[in-house]
Design a protein that fits this description.
Rossmann fold, 10 strands, about 35% helix, alpha/beta
Amino acid sequence: MIKLRGISKFYSTGYVKTFVLRHITLDIAEGEFVTVMGPSGAGKSTLLHILGMLDTPSEGEYFFYDQPVHRMTDRQLTELHKHRIGFVFQSYHLIDDLTVYENLETPLLYKKIKAAERKGLVADALDRFAIVGKKDLFPNQLSGGQQQRVAIARALITKPKLILADEPTGNLNSREGKEVMDMFKELNQAGTTIVQVTHSELNAAYGRRTIHLLDGWIQT
C-alpha cells in the first residue's frame, strides 16, 4: 500500500540544513495497524503529515498503491488525500459553529456527493458511532471523548483506505482513550489500515508493529 524510499525532510537556513527526517525507507501493507513512537522532536508528526500528503518530503520517493506521490501536483495530492485518507488529530479539529451532523456532512460536500446519499451516509455514521442523540449539538456541548468520536466518524465517512491518527487520545481520560483505541481496533479488524503516532505504550500495544524514531532516523 505504502512504500517510502529514502525520504528526508529538512529546512535550509543559508548553508545549514536542519533535518527533521533522515533517509526513511518503510513499507506498510494494506490492513496493517502500525504505531510510530519516539521522543518529542523525533519527526513522528512530520512523517505522519508526509504519509497523509499534508506535507512534502525534501528528498526521496513515496508510492501510494504504486502511484508516485512525490511526482504529483498539489491538485493531484488533494484529490488523492480527499478520497483515500482520513486524519484524526489530538485536538479534534471539528468546526465549532457547525453541529455534529454538519461536521459529518462537510467532507461529503467536498466530494460533491448528492444530498440523498449524503443523508444516508451521515445517518449510518451517527448510528455506527452511537452519536445519533448528539447530531444537533455543537462541539463545545460535547465531552472530549464524544468530540473525538465525531472526529473519527468524520474521518471515516468517506470510506478511506488509510487512517492516520496523531496522538488521538492525548486530550482524553483513560476511559475515553480506551473507547477510542477499541474503536480503532475494530476498524482495523474490518480492513482499514491505521498508522498512529503515540507516546503511550498502552496504545502502542493495539498496533501489530511499532516503528521507533529518534532524531529523524528509524531505529533498527
